[in-house]
């Protein structure tokens, strides 16, 4: 008998009504009763009565469990189904219980269900598959090895890929424990087990040993995509890139699916071998002309290579695709922009929805602004708020940005007021307004907006930093500002903007030790003009004149026309090379 692994994480997608489950329980119990030896009439009557009572008694717990599930009470559902498994242990109920436990990622409950299932039905192979997979996920490697051994006693060449999929522990200790358990399996020459061991060895850097095991597995199953890809990965890990690409190119010719070829294409693109990737995609499309993933990759790769007609050829085939329609329209619009066909790009961007909606509208607005048509951009966004009400917040913010670029800050603030009245708890709208307020003339409104932001999201590093920076610019409540900046940094360490704020506040407090330290980190992360100028000032006040001079020289070379840098240079001892012109 040949055993093939079923999808461990996807139990059958049947809709188990309560009646179906209970009828299944009764039917299964009737089958057990039918093959039970009968010796006397009295025993028959007693057995029949017991079976009937057992199944009737299962009705109420199943109803309770399913009702609890419909009400969102997951704990009660799982507890009730676990009771059913422990007391009745019928395969259809077990499977339903396991399905729910896996759906809500309760691995401990799922493992317990599968263990009880196997104990009561020791020859039920699907139950053993679940038990092996779940024991691996629960890091109970001895139980996993024991269960795998039982499966392999039935079929030494069983396909265990579904069981082993994604089971690679992160810690060295766990990897060693799993490796030791797998090495105790009697039939460890099974291809799936060999590959699992190879993967664990590869994670520990034992590439040569791992490669030998993968080669053994490939002798028995030469065309399994995951085996082929693992061998390529081992070549890549050992810096044998040429061998990896040769192996992938050779193996992909004999595959029944495009998986191996796609993997090769991804690596070619990562190594900037875009032309080779497109050649590979063209060859694959001859074999799988309707494969949407291949068509999509061929289309966007063609755009990168400025083969615009070729890109249109591939992407237009996806404009009616359920999976790729929006991506196809978006990249066809990008393609049209590259060809300088703005009219076509506008039409295509307007057709985009889904995950590419926001970026398409930004690009659309960008075209209008390049064409000096801001009024058309605003008109479009106003219409879009009607046709796409779920995108209203984003559309309001984009329109406010256009008004700001036109120098009409007050109109932008009024527009955002209108939006906030409709969506008073939307932090992005409030934050967009914060960025428009003047820290001095709009101080009260700014304080209200910042307090509202922290009320909605008190632990947001962005909003904490915004409040801290505003107070620093106003040079008030510096202790509060510093507390907010430090809190923001605890949530988002190594963020240049927050370090800059903290350094700025420390500078205003005459804490030049902290100012230099924070601004040095900020400048290392983001060496721009504003942070550089603050860092230089902090160095000067700290007395680090040598470092101050070095930063001034760097800034002068990068920003020779900056007035701020010119002012810094006046603080130096006269140096003809660094004097402002």
UniProtKB/TrEMBL annotation:
PROSITE patterns: TPR. SUPFAM superfamilies: TPR-like. Gene3D superfamilies: Tetratricopeptide repeat domain (1.25.40.10). Keywords: TPR repeat. It holds the Pfam family TPR_16. TPR repeats lie at residues 125-158, 496-529. SMART domains: TPR (SM00028). Coiled coil: none annotated. This is Tetratricopeptide repeat protein. It comes from Acinetobacter populi.
């Amino acid at each position: 008998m040949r055993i093939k692994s079923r999808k461990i994480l996807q139990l059958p997608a049947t809709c188990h009504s309560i009646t179906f489950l209970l009828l299944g329980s009764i039917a299964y119990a009737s089958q057990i009763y039918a093959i039970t030896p009968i010796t006397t009439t009295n025993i028959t009557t007693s057995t029949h009565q017991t079976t009937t009572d057992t199944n009737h008694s299962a009705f109420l717990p199943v109803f309770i469990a399913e009702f609890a599930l419909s009400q969102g009470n997951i704990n009660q559902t799982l507890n009730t189904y676990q009771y059913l498994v422990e007391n009745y242990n019928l395969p259809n109920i077990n499977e339903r219980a396991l399905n729910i436990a896996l759906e809500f990622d309760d691995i401990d409950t799922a493992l317990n269900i599968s263990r009880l299932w196997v104990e009561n039905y020791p020859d039920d192979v699907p139950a053993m598959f679940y038990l092996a997979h779940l024991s691996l996920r629960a890091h109970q490697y001895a139980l996993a090895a024991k269960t795998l051994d039982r499966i392999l006693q039935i079929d030494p060449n069983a396909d265990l890929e579904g069981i082993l999929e994604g089971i690679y522990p992160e810690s060295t200790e766990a990897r060693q424990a799993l490796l030791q358990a797998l090495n105790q399996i009697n039939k460890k020459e099974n291809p799936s087990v060999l590959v699992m061991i190879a993967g664990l060895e590869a994670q520990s850097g034992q590439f040569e040993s791992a490669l030998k095991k993968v080669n053994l597995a490939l002798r028995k199953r030469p065309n399994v995509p995951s085996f082929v890809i693992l061998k390529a990965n081992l070549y890549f890990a050992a810096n044998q890139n040429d061998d990896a690409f040769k192996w992938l190119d050779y193996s992909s010719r004999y595959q029944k699916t495009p998986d191996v070829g796609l993997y090769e294409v991804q690596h070619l693109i990562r190594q900037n071998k875009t032309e080779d990737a497109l050649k590979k995609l063209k060859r694959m499309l001859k074999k799988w002309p309707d494969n949407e993933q291949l068509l999509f990759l061929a289309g966007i790769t063609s755009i990168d290579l400025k083969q615009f007609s070729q890109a249109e050829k591939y992407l237009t085939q996806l404009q009616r695709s359920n999976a790729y329609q929006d991506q196809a329209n978006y990249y066809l619009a990008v393609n049209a922009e590259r060809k300088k066909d703005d009219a076509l790009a506008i039409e295509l961007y307007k057709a985009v929805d889904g995950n590419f909606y926001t970026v398409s509208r930004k690009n659309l607005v960008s075209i209008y602004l390049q064409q000096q048509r801001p009024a058309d951009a605003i008109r479009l966004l106003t219409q879009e708020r009607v046709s796409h009400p779920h995108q209203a917040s984003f559309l309001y913010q984009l329109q406010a940005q256009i008004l700001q670029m036109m120098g009409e800050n007050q109109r932008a603030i009024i527009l955002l007021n209108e939006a906030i009245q409709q969506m008073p708890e939307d932090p992005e709208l409030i934050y967009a307004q914060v960025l428009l307020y003047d820290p001095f003339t709009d101080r009260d409104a700014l304080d209200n907006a910042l307090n509202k932001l922290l009320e909605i999201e008190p632990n947001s590093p962005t909003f904490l930093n915004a409040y801290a920076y505003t107070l620093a610019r106003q040079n008030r409540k510096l202790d509060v500002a510093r507390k907010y900046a430090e809190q923001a940094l605890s949530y988002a360490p190594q963020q240049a903007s927050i370090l800059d704020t903290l350094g700025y506040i420390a500078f205003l407090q005459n804490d030049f030790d902290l100012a230099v330290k924070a601004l040095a980190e900020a400048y290392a992360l983001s060496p721009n003009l504003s942070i550089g100028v603050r860092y230089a000032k902090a160095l000067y006040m700290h007395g680090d004149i040598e470092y101050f001079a070095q930063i001034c020289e760097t800034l002068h070379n990068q920003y020779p026309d900056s007035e701020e840098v010119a002012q810094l240079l006046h603080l130096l001892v006269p140096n003809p090379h660094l004097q402002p012109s």
